[in-house]
Amino acid sequence: MEALNHLDKYLEEFTPKLEARGTKSSWASNSEAGQGNHHRHNPRKKARSINQSKAMTSEEIHLNDALEKEGLTVVESDLGEFIMQL
Fold first, then answer.
1. Is residue 32 part of a domain?
2. Could you tell me the residue range of the domain that residue 69 belongs to?
3. I need a surface site. Which of 35, 44, 52, 54 has the fewest CB within 10 A?
4. What is the DSSP string of the chain?
5. Is the pTM of this model over 0.90?
6. What would the pLDDT profile of 62-81 be if each residue is shown by its tens digit?
């Protein structure tokens, strides 16, 4: 409960540590902004597919649907999600 009650503080502390290790991060206030962040961080370089680890946020903002509409194949690396896709 401590982490949830102060999530903003912990995320602000954690983000620079992630980025120092080469991770890209972004903040979004809605689904469209979140999908746009993906495009900004991952410019298309003739990609045909994306392997995605389990992430509830991507489901909540309908990122997979947006990527598939662009013609990309999205494969979940989470076994349960992969089985559901099949």
1. yes
2. 25-85
3. 44
4. -HHHHTHHHHHHHHHHHHHHTT------SSHHHHHHHHHHHS--SS--EEEE---HHHHHTTHHHHHHHTT-EEEESSHHHHHHH-
5. no
6. 888 888 888 888 887 777 77
